[in-house]
């Protein structure tokens, strides 16, 4: 171990065997935290080559169980977002892609902190559950082309252990470490192909485009080196996506998007990501063609039909799609007015996410119970002009006193005297 540390410290390249030794030893407990900490810090400063990063990824994949999806017909494409606020894309993408006959075998998690989890959002549908056996999961995907299961088993224990150590050694923010961490989880969950949505902006992990680009390129490189077709986009997180933040509220927004009447930014991002998924699955020759077909299944109702079938297959009530009154509603709806005026120039997404969490929409710790009905609906986004006293958002709450949440939302909005330039939704394709 000391030789490996010295080699990396001096900027030399580690072999696959050395990297595997390190990850296996650390997972098993024969390599102590202090040596792994030193290793992570050398990586932070020296970086890793593409080959080293791929070896690290595969060593983490092999540290635990892997999900075997070979009994599912077709190319299994997964999508991953590096974390956004109000990001409802999975709920829309999955039925959209499935409606074109491409299998979506999705393993999802619950939300932690101010970003939401797909499973929590799905549980806003009465009766819906994700506790299905592996066999049932495979069966459902073959039948309906879509199923979502909760995270189970001992996937990538090396990543869990290393991630905790990174957290306390100031080594989270290293591109090869982030890239290998994300990719190892997708690969262990059985993906043949992966579409990545790297977020950039005030509400994202990556604050500038150069860093987001480096992360996107590193992940695409890993995928291609280990035989998983991978592509990525960089998308904007200088404001939350769509208007709704909160579990049931986002479910409604997802259904509206599947009906062709969702927010423009959310619909566009879904079409871009879904086109890439279709392309990687080999379902279409060009992205333009895929996009055409995806718009078609929104317009002819097939995407919504796939969504209803999916809800029903996992115990959910599919009639909620046509009747939102069957979804839980918070007791109070409180309007938030501005005390400023001007053009909205930015909406700090983290702050809106925190506001929703304070209402009970998100977990402060893994054990927290959440309230599916609460959250925030924005009425104004970047570029909109606002006079003092205009309503910028509505709070959906089960608590009457929301003064702190009101402040938080007001402070999340930034204004400028002039109309800001249009920010592109997509900053790059890889
Ligand atoms: N998300 C992950 O899964 N891993 C990281 O290292 C960073 C973000
Ligand atoms: Ca949203």
UniProtKB/TrEMBL annotation:
<dbReference type="GO" id="GO:0009032">
    <property type="term" value="F:thymidine phosphorylase activity"/>
</dbReference>
<dbReference type="InterPro" id="IPR036320">
    <property type="entry name" value="Glycosyl_Trfase_fam3_N_dom_sf"/>
</dbReference>
<dbReference type="Pfam" id="PF07831">
    <property type="entry name" value="PYNP_C"/>
</dbReference>
<feature type="domain" description="Pyrimidine nucleoside phosphorylase C-terminal">
    <location>
        <begin position="343"/>
        <end position="416"/>
    </location>
</feature>
<dbReference type="Pfam" id="PF02885">
    <property type="entry name" value="Glycos_trans_3N"/>
</dbReference>
<dbReference type="InterPro" id="IPR000312">
    <property type="entry name" value="Glycosyl_Trfase_fam3"/>
</dbReference>
<dbReference type="InterPro" id="IPR035902">
    <property type="entry name" value="Nuc_phospho_transferase"/>
</dbReference>
<dbReference type="GO" id="GO:0004850">
    <property type="term" value="F:uridine phosphorylase activity"/>
</dbReference>
<dbReference type="Pfam" id="PF00591">
    <property type="entry name" value="Glycos_transf_3"/>
</dbReference>
<dbReference type="InterPro" id="IPR000053">
    <property type="entry name" value="Thymidine/pyrmidine_PPase"/>
</dbReference>
<dbReference type="InterPro" id="IPR013102">
    <property type="entry name" value="PYNP_C"/>
</dbReference>
<dbReference type="InterPro" id="IPR018090">
    <property type="entry name" value="Pyrmidine_PPas_bac/euk"/>
</dbReference>
<dbReference type="InterPro" id="IPR017459">
    <property type="entry name" value="Glycosyl_Trfase_fam3_N_dom"/>
</dbReference>
<protein>
    <recommendedName>
        <fullName>Pyrimidine-nucleoside phosphorylase</fullName>
        <ecNumber>2.4.2.2</ecNumber>
    </recommendedName>
</protein>
<comment type="similarity">
    <text>Belongs to the thymidine/pyrimidine-nucleoside phosphorylase family.</text>
</comment>
<dbReference type="InterPro" id="IPR017872">
    <property type="entry name" value="Pyrmidine_PPase_CS"/>
</dbReference>
<dbReference type="InterPro" id="IPR036566">
    <property type="entry name" value="PYNP-like_C_sf"/>
</dbReference>
<comment type="function">
    <text>Catalyzes phosphorolysis of the pyrimidine nucleosides uridine, thymidine and 2'-deoxyuridine with the formation of the corresponding pyrimidine base and ribose-1-phosphate.</text>
</comment>
<dbReference type="GO" id="GO:0004645">
    <property type="term" value="F:1,4-alpha-oligoglucan phosphorylase activity"/>
</dbReference>
<dbReference type="GO" id="GO:0006206">
    <property type="term" value="P:pyrimidine nucleobase metabolic process"/>
</dbReference>
<keyword id="KW-0808">Transferase</keyword>
<comment type="subunit">
    <text>Homodimer.</text>
</comment>
<dbReference type="GO" id="GO:0005829">
    <property type="term" value="C:cytosol"/>
</dbReference>
<dbReference type="GO" id="GO:0006213">
    <property type="term" value="P:pyrimidine nucleoside metabolic process"/>
</dbReference>
<keyword id="KW-0328">Glycosyltransferase</keyword>
<dbReference type="GO" id="GO:0047847">
    <property type="term" value="F:deoxyuridine phosphorylase activity"/>
</dbReference>
